[in-house]
Amino acid sequence: MTFWLLFCIFLAACLGAGVTGGLFAPGPWYRGLNKPWFTPPDWAFPVTWMVLYVCMAVAGARVGMLSGNGIAMAFWAFQIALNAVWSPVFFGLKNIRLGMAIVSALWLGVLCTMLAMWQIDWIAGLLFLPYLIWVTIAAALNAGVWRLNMDVARNPPPAPS
Amino acid sequence: MTFWLLFCIFLAACLGAGVTGGLFAPGPWYRGLNKPWFTPPDWAFPVTWMVLYVCMAVAGARVGMLSGNGIAMAFWAFQIALNAVWSPVFFGLKNIRLGMAIVSALWLGVLCTMLAMWQIDWIAGLLFLPYLIWVTIAAALNAGVWRLNMDVARNPPPAPS
Description:
Two copies of one chain form a homodimer.
Chain A: H1 2-23, H2 28-31, H3 44-64, H4 70-92, H5 96-120, H6 122-127, H7 129-148, H8 150-154
Helix pairs in contact in A: 1-3, 1-4, 4-5, 5-7
């Protein structure tokens, strides 16, 4: 009972953060960039995120029911905040370098969440592993786009006013 | 010791979400809108948010150390995700109506976090009260801007591409 309530709240947090991925989605600007060979096709992003959201929510709900979960819960909140920020910065502001800073912090946050969870529930930790792998790919993609589009990265358009 | 570690992680989550408030800040578009009489001056926003972030982090850290904190921790994560989303939608996409939907969900999330915290630590619950009041003002501001700028709200500019 408590598990499903926790699952629903954590899933809602994921979907809340995911709103930005839908609103600031790959468009003409992104399509016009040079991209590394391992770039996933556009359709893979929403599909993968939905699977990851379910894993993240299950992991959060499992750990939410255990005592001594403070650090894991705090890192869970940290990673979802940064998760919400990447799309607006990368696709919205078209700021490749700032996107790199945010995806790096997100990567670290996901790693810390996974490690903190693993210590009190290894299944929850394992459920964060696909997420860590995906953010690793996202970070490599961001880095690759930066390397292959130096001029664009150096001159992001002015912020919306 | 654990308290301060938790405090730092929760504060980092707040600052991570707050990045969007700095990047998608009030600009010429916002200044050109008709605003309700109770609109706070621009400088009040970052000042208030910093105070609220500290309150939110202290509340999170206090509850993070207690057992039976699952629901409160899940709602804490939910509200910070939505907190990160409002600025990009309102100031970035200039979408007043979608901003209203998000600030309403945020308001509900903050209320639920406060109530869930209050049940296990009334001081933590109390620390969320100023946040709830501020989000109430923000929601009223969003609603007022909508009412006073019907044409702008009806025709948000196309999303960045």
